[in-house]
Amino acid sequence: MKRLFAWLLVVALLCVTFMPNISILAYEYPETLVSKGFVLPDIVTFKEALEHNYVGRVTEEEKDLYTYVFLNSDGSHTMRVYSHPVKYYKDDKIQDISLKFKKDKDGYRSFDHPVSVRLNNNLIDGVSISAPDVSVNLIPNIKDNTYVKACISADSRVVEYKLNDDISYEYMLTCVGVKEDIVVKQYTGQSDFFFRITTNGLCLKLIDGVLYLTDEKGDIKASMGDVYVTTADEKNNKLSSMTYATIREKEEYMIKISLDKDFLEDDNTVYPIRIDPSIEVNYNIYGAGAIEDVTINSLDTSDGSSGSLYVGNRSEFGKARILMRFPNLNLNSIQSADNITSAYVELRDLLCESESMTVYCYPFTGDSWTESNVGWNSVSPNSYGSLLSSNDISYNNGLSCSIAHRYSFLITNAAKGWRNGTYDSSKGLIFKASDSVETGNYINKTFASYNRSEYKPSLTINYTSGDNTYNDIYLDNRFEVNILAANNKQIFRYVPSETGFYSFYSYYSGSAVPKGYLYNSEMIELSSSNGGGIYGGNNFMVTYHLIENVTYYFGAGFYGDGIGTYDVWLSKTNEGRMLER
After folding, report:
1. Domain ranges of the chain
2. CA-to-CA dists, residue 456 to 50, 81, 133, 298, angstroms
3. Which 8-state DSSP code applies to residue 376?
4. Distance of alpha carbon 293 from alpha carbon 131, whole angstroms
5. 393: Cβ contacts below 8 Å, ≥ 6 apart
6. What is 471-578's CATH number?
7. CA-CA distance, 499 to 17, in Å (whole number)?
8. pLDDT at residue 454 above 80?
């Protein structure tokens, strides 16, 4: 059955790749294996879905706007925690953020997105970004105001303006703004690129190499991170920066991106190159809500707002380590630490240098910290637990990653510790080089921070649903269910001796709402109920046609955050009607 399902999943997802917006359900999965209406969120790739065998969403276990929980084909769950919101409130309902553009008469715009992004038909009319307290227009400075027409990709995710045979501008939505790539196919002698930005009352400021838009109180409302330049083979990637000149204070500025001519002419720079300035609306610059990260340097201050993270030994900064924490991580939907089967954090190597350096990951046990108030001497940087995992970071090793140059650090023991209280997720993890590297020759690795529009870190936790233990249940016998914590379930096993309809039902007189579940032998949910029971009130009854000599599991818990004690029975029925005995 597993092989058959895996084959069906591969075929279905390949088909969906060429038919956007069609529910995976349309491809005749076994109905018991797929949540009805399941469509992958835009931020989740089909490759990821294939690797985990996603077959549905478990939305009741998604506790915030930063988290997805997926049901896997083996009945386990995968929690994906992002460093930025992946959902938003629309008309008082939570909705996934779309990363696709829609066409209208004036060009292309975002939809089902918390930030309004509009790309006009002509490049010289610019890009408009609107959100609460933010209304800006970013206009590339094009020679002679040439008309450059917008074209959209087949998947509606990329809008391109082809300036000439050598240079084009590409725009893609992020969950909190818009990403711009200046694509240069060959060196033309141009090393500077200019943009005019109108800010409607916001002030443009350059802080530690990053451009920010601030209001009259100095609060950051939007940011334009440091510029990331990638070569075609990623062997000579570079970080750059922007400068600006004021045309009208709080109204209009000219932004300049300058690239090193030696880099552009270097034989090691393989074209096309991509120059990545992006603009994103601030969703809490000091703390992404789900993931915060910062580089701490032994000889210098730390910068929690940077788009880059560093590990190793840096010539001007000394020892460099990364702190990463998960201040609002909610693991209450996981019944116990024993249910966690694996967990990992993903970090993207930005510069992809050939020289190898090992990066080690530990649970951090030092002082509490936040990005806005952290330093080498304030957090006890040598306080950490046992080694969780390590990766040898180099260009060649990055090519072998599941997603190129995106490294997975296994942190299962830390995640178990966060669930049982051994460790503190609000203190998080520390990444460091070996002692010999930190005191030896200068070498470091550069990773993407949560402040970078692309390649942000993410956290994945895989876990089994329900309790790993069970009791056998017998026909027409009363069994007590005692639920002491929200989202817990009590599991019962049953192997019918004859084929037919069976009902699992509750008796409860309290104010909470009991909920019953039926699973197959692989703990994949077949049915559930939180009402319609023969005892009325909030009682449940789950009725299903069972096959003789096949193992089934029944689960009993509460809807939402309910707790309490009640009784359950299992009886042979006639499609929900009790048989006389």
Report:
1. 2-60, 96-281, 292-463, 471-578
2. 21, 11, 25, 25
3. G
4. 25
5. 349, 356, 357, 358, 359, 407, 445
6. 2.60.120.380
7. 40
8. no
Query: 549: helix, coil or strand?
Result: coil
Q: What percent of the chain has pLDDT over 90?
A: 65
Banded model confidence at residue 244, pLDDT cuts 50, 70, 90: very high
What's the number of CA atoms in the CB half-sphere (13 Å) around residue 270? 6
Cα dihedral 13, 19, 25, 28 in deg (nearest 10): -80
Phi, psi (rounded to 5 degrees) for 59: -65, -25
Three-state SS string across 473-492, please? CCCCCCEEEEECCCCCEEEE
User: How much is the CA Rg of the chain, to the nearest whole Å?
Assistant: 27
CA distances from 149 to 41, 125, 179 (A): 29, 11, 18
Q: Label residues 174-211 b or e (16+ Cβ within 10 Å = b).
A: bbbbbbbbbbbeebeeeeebebebbbeebbbeeeebbb
What's the CA gap between 528 and 240, in Å, rounded?
A: 54
Q: What span, in angstroms and rounded, lies between the C-alpha atoms of 448 and 465?
A: 32
Strand extents, DSSP E, 163-271: 167-174, 177-184, 192-198, 203-207, 210-214, 220-224, 227-230, 238-240, 242-248, 252-258
Tokens 């800010």 appear where? 199
Nearest by Cα to 189 from 171, 161, 167: 167
Length of the chain: 581
Please report, to the nearest 10 degrees, the dihedral formed by the alpha carbons of residues 90, 96, 101, 102 taken in order. -50
Q: Which of 507, 473, 469 is nearest to 488 (CA)?
A: 469
Cβ atoms 203, 221 nearer than 8 A = no
Q: Residue 337 phi/psi, 5° resolution?
A: -60, -30
Q: Which two tokens stand for residue 24?
A: 């995976």
Q: Which of 4-13, 74-83, 104-113, 268-277 bottoms out in mean pLDDT, i.e. has the lowest?
A: 4-13
Nearest to 82 by CA among 99, 66, 105, 103: 66
- Is 112's pLDDT higher than 50? yes
- With tokens 């509750």, the residue in question is 506
- In angstroms, rounded to a whole number, what is the distance separating the alpha carbons of residues 231 and 62? 38
The CB density around residue 32, as the number of other CB atoms within 10 Å, is 14
What average pLDDT does the segment 93-116 reach?
Answer: 95
